[in-house]
Amino acid sequence: MFGVVFPNRSFPIDISTFSQIDTFHWILDMNTFVGEAYDSINEICIFLLNSFTLPPDKALAVYIQSPGSHFVFCGAVTLSRPSALLSLTWPDPGGQMQLTAADSAPLSAKIGVSVDDLASLPSLDVAAEKRIERLAMKVGENLFNFMQSFCGVDGSRLVVPMDILDRWFKKFQEKAKRDPQFLKDFA
């Protein structure tokens, strides 16, 4: 049904390497590959092996879990998007779930894959949305800092020149043309 690759870290891994929990859920114990260095794995490529195994209204969703934490959604593949390179931002270990004395198995990081309703998923690529959000915040911060250097105060109001946005945008464009790294620093 699916396979995964950890870029620069593994050969393709098929579904047989995962433990099947039930018909629609699989778990990969990261101790199998990297032991406690699970957080050094920061990307996963997941791909469908054929189009006959996943209905069009379903998605194959990827979740990650640090030792002692809850699963966190990372992204998904669908028939119209049969492969994806997803960033793995591991949650902080431990804090949310506590191990009791009755639990004999050691905690380990896991990657979960499940068949979910496409409509129920927030996004197919969570990391891409976070990058866009971070970029927008950095651009807004740059604009605010530029405007603040030209502000005057009138009672409880900040006063800026009328052409401040034009001046900022021209400066922003010039900087981007001069220094290609400038825009990459925002991301």
From TrEMBL:
InterPro entries xref list: Hikeshi-like_C, Hikeshi-like_N, OPI10
Occurrences of domain Hikeshi-like C-terminal (ranges): 132-184
Biological processes per GO annotation: protein import into nucleus
Record-annotated Hikeshi-like N-terminal domain positions: 19-121
Name of the featured protein: DUF775 domain-containing protein
Pfam families named among the record's database cross-references: Hikeshi-like_C, Hikeshi-like_N
Family designation: Belongs to the OPI10 family.
GO cellular component: cytosol; nucleus
GO molecular function: nuclear import signal receptor activity
